[in-house]
Amino acid sequence: MEHLHYTIQINAPQRKVWDTMLGEETYKQWASVFNPDPSAESYVEGGWDEGNDIKFIGKEKDGAISGMIGKIQESRPGEFVSIKYSGEIMQGKETIYGPDELYFENYTFNDKDGGTELTVDINVKDEYKDMFNGMWPKALEVLKELAEK
Question: Is 67 left (phi over 0), alpha (psi -120 to 50) or beta?
């Protein structure tokens, strides 16, 4: 298991960065970086409130649905959200993880230098490390561009 950490400074207030990152339409824009088919849409099913079930969905090049299944463990709007993953969707088939597989993703929004420092901490399977290290920095740059408009 790998722990990955990404940080970006965004010249916008915390709440605007939060709304841009988690808003339905803007999420689709920055999260498209994670989709292998650039013409396909990435989207969220569920909500960002504490206790909500949530799925992160995208289409593969062959049209099959893939993504992650999770639950919001903690949500403090404008400040912090923590997602615990319980499974994944590959080629349309859901697979639930075993009890000792603890994958998470945390977003932390802090006031810094008149803007927002966004930190993303994730815990992933070893085989996904290089993929996420290539995609997350690009996704954060797209998010930054959207939030600074």
Answer: left
> What is the length of the chain?
149
Tokens of 75: 């949500």
| pLDDT digit string (tens) for the chain, length 149 residues | 889 999 999 999 999 999 999 999 999 999 988 876 666 778 899 999 999 999 998 877 777 888 899 999 999 999 999 999 999 998 889 989 887 778 899 999 999 999 999 999 999 888 889 999 999 999 999 999 999 99
Are the C-beta atoms of 108 and 119 separated by less than 8 Å?
A: yes
Separation between Cα atoms, residue 96 and residue 105, nearest integer Å: 17
How many CB atoms are closer than 10 A to CB 45? 11
Half-sphere exposure of 51 (CA within 13 A, CB side): 0
Q: What distance in Å separates the CA atoms of residue 119 and residue 110, rounded to the nearest whole number? A: 8
In angstroms, the CA 148 to CA 13 distance is 9
> In sequence order, which residues have a C-beta less than 8 Å from that of residue 49 and are 6 or more positions away?
72, 75
The tokens describing 67, both together, are 């993504």
